[in-house]
Amino acid sequence: MNRFSPYALGATLYMPATRPDLLAVVRGEKLSNLRSLVICLEDAVAEKDIEFALDNLQRLLLDLSRVGRYKDAPLVFVRPRHLNMAKQLVEWPLIHLVNGLVLPKFTLHDLPVWQHLLADTKLLIMPTLETKEVFDAGAMSELAQALKQELAERVLVLRIGGNDLLSCLGLRRSSVYTLYQSPMAYVIGMLSGVMGAAGFSLTAPVCELINQPALLRQELILDIEHGLVGKTAIHPTQIPIIHQALKVSVSDYQAARLILNDTAPAVFSHNGAMCEPATHERWARRILERAYWYGMSDVEAVDVLV
Asked: Residue 204: what pLDDT?
């Protein structure tokens, strides 16, 4: 299966499978700045529209088999409604034309089923953590170890389902505060630690407040501070804001290059901060990977090597 950098996702736009313009978006003809999208058959599709949505997705795959995708077209994932629908999808002969599946409401209990389901495919997966078990750090540690053993080679990122997690608490996102001023601060911090230490990358929950770009920018700063590598988007206007936030500062880029230099001393100072290659190497590699995909915020262009 083809592997991609988690940073290749950027702003992942969710689109209902009922949309008539899927082919133009998937081929890269529409929304030229889009890096990845999820064709959703779950929450974004009403029960009465499921059959139409599945037919529309089949037409998309058939069209793609004829015309293909452009080189810079976005990565494409499909989000089935449930396991039974996923079983149906993986039997489609053209499902290999998408990059993978988003696994909704993923739990340890479902892991063996997904493993069996995907065995004969080359699909990547993005499990979504959005059930009540996610609030239990012990359960997440157990899930992380099971994922490493059973599905690690397929997992591109883990997605944090903010709205479903808030729903577990009977809450909804505030219109004036970021998620980090809610119980999600604990959840995101814990997942960043537990799953990040196990080697998994995570993407940030959506900011559904489409008309509040300032709040989105505030939240992105905290997303990145928590080590999250991308963010779900629900509107095209959010895409450039998310990609701008993923740019790397000149100072961080320079520090990362110095830390990874073969001749770097064990400890040295850069821009008033101590740099220690033995402990900062992983951070430095992530910085250069981000810079490769998004460039630097303080300059127009940069020649970077990962």
From this structure: 98
CA distances from 177 to 104, 150, 216, 220 (A): 26, 38, 10, 13
Report which of residues 154 and 3 the model is more confident about. Answer: 154
CATH of domain 6-244: 3.20.20.60
How many Å apart are CA 132 and CA 112, to the nearest integer?
19
Pick the closest to residue 143 from 79, 202, 207, 205 (CA basis): 202
* Torsions phi, psi for 18 (to 5 deg): -85, -5
Helix (H, G, I), strand (E, B) or coil at 268: strand
Burial of 250 (0-12, 13-18, 19+ CB in 10 A): middle
Nearest to 117 by CA among 88, 96, 146, 142: 88
pLDDT in tens, 60-81: 999 999 999 988 899 999 999 9
pLDDT at 1: 60
100, β-bridge pairs: 77, 124
Q: What is the pLDDT of residues 186-202, one digit of tens each?
A: 999 999 999 999 999 99
Quick one: tokens of 274?
A: 């101590």
The CA-based angle 291-78-17, given to 5 degrees, is 115
Domain parsing of the chain, residue ranges: 6-244, 250-294
